[in-house]
């Protein structure tokens, strides 16, 4: 676990500079006590607290591969190639949610209909769609489709809620992902308990995922594997705030016949952003194979450390990340279960990979334009080495194919973006975000060389 010279320099500069100003954020210990109020005692009623609303999102992406890379698509039975891919989808969510019934045990229901309208239906443009545009077996876009994104019933006692059905869930290992026109969701049973002032517990058992760009439920599979599926994902953990300036999370998950995965995350704040503030973030994952070892033999330790300096409108963040293992750091497909600092367009998660990122952001509210923000970043990964990988467990179909060819691979990524959130009026909270990313990989680096421009507009609305 040896840090690069750049990472050490960033650590030193950040720590020394922040110490001079670290006076404003309280470092006081927070005692653990019972929650002061019961959420269920304040229930307004099943009908009385009913709400109906949602969001509509216009999601546009144009990608271009270079340095020999191409996308494939089929036309009249022939496989054709092209450097470019365009996806343009309007995703709309209508969410109906009751209130909790009154009494010792409250009951609530939630139902959300997801709808997608494809605005660019050219087979040549969408290139089969992948997880961006839903396409049929011939590669033609499904022009319009709908599904139940959420459908659950919730039971609450005091400050503890049990949810059964299709739902959102958020933790460092199993987390809903919402970076397309529509988000994913999970089918199963979960609980969230907030009976203490600074300590909460979460857990769940899920057997299916509702993908971002598919109508039907699917079994869980890994992001970087080659097709193995599992019927059951179980997770349990806690969130704790021991200091006013420190928050930690600890979670574990069993992915049946894939792996056992453990997560620890911590965020600490120091100083005053009007002068100078330091935010330190640490994320660590331990992954080991389990059961039938459908993903092969795994023994992986991966961590990231980030140090963010903030002064008024400006922020500067340094992030170092390292994978210790002869396989990818892997996570569940259709989830956001990767809280690593350098998970960008590329996850920088190759076998034995090290990576470093520098990011700058500016909040124009300090200059009289609230809601307008810009950011820019540069990240580099090196030392990717899969030559020692032997963990296919005799199951070549499900192993990390091709990983053995990665010997000293490296890559780099640059990105720039801007966003604006409307502050008032009928379109209040509407956000518009534009991003441009360029990624360049060496010959056998998995992500290749690609450029992408995205323009995403999200409009929330209330009906009742």
Automatic annotation (TrEMBL):
Q: This protein's superkingdom?
A: Bacteria
Signal peptide range: 1-22
InterPro entries per the UniProt record, alphabetical: OM_porin_bac, Porin_dom_sf
According to the UniProt entry, its GO molecular function terms are: porin activity
Q: Which UniProt keywords apply?
A: Signal, Transport
Annotated Gene Ontology cellular component terms: membrane
- Family statement: Belongs to the outer membrane porin (Opr) (TC 1.B.25) family.
**Entry protein name:** Porin
Give the source species.
Pseudomonas canadensis
């Amino acid at each position: 676990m040896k840090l690069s010279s750049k990472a050490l320099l960033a650590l030193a500069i950040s720590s020394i500079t922040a110490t001079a100003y670290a006076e404003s954020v309280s470092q006081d210990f927070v005692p653990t006590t019972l929650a002061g109020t019961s959420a269920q005692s304040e229930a307004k009623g099943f009908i009385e607290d009913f709400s109906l609303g949602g969001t509509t999102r216009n999601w546009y992406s144009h990608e271009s591969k270079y340095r020999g890379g191409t996308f494939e698509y089929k036309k009249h039975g022939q496989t054709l190639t092209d450097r470019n891919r365009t996806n343009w989808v309007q995703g709309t969510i209508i969410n109906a949610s009751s209130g909790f019934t009154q009494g010792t045990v409250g009951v609530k229901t939630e139902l959300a209909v997801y709808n997608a309208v494809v605005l660019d239906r050219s087979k040549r443009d969408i290139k089969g769609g992948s997880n961006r545009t839903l396409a049929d077996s011939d590669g033609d876009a499904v022009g319009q489709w709908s599904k139940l994104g959420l459908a659950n019933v919730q039971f609450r006692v005091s400050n503890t809620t049990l949810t059964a059905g299709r739902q959102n869930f958020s933790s460092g290992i199993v987390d809903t992902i919402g970076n397309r026109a529509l988000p994913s969701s999970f089918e199963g049973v979960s609980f969230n308990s907030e009976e203490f002032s600074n300590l909460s517990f979460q857990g769940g058992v899920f057997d299916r995922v509702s993908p971002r760009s598919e109508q039907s439920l699917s079994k869980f599979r890994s992001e970087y594997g080659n097709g193995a599926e599992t019927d059951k994902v179980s997770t349990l953990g806690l969130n704790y705030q021991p200091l006013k300036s420190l928050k930690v999370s600890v979670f574990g998950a069993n992915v049946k016949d894939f792996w056992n995965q453990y997560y620890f995350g911590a965020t600490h704040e120091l100083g005053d952003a009007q002068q100078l503030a330091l935010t330190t973030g640490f994320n660590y994952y331990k992954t080991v194979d389990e059961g039938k070892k459908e993903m092969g033999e795994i023994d992986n330790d991966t961590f990231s450390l980030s140090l963010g300096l903030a002064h008024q409108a400006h922020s500067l963040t340094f992030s170092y990340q390292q994978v210790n293992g002869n396989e990818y750091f892997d996570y569940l497909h259709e989830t956001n279960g990767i809280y690593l600092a350098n998970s960008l367009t590329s996850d920088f998660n190759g076998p034995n990979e090290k990576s470093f990122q520098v990011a700058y952001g500016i909040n124009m509210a300090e200059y009289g334009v609230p809601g307008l923000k810009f950011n820019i970043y540069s990240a580099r990964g090196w030392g990717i080495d899969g030559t020692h990988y032997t963990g296919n467990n005799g199951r070549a179909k499900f192993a990390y194919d091709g990983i053995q060819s990665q010997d000293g691979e490296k890559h780099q990524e640059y990105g720039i973006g801007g966003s604006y959130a409307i502050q008032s009026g009928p379109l209040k909270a509407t956000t518009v975000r534009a991003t441009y990313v360029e990624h360049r990989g060496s010959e056998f680096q998995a992500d290749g060389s690609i450029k992408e421009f995205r323009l995403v507009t999200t409009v929330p609305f209330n009906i009742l």
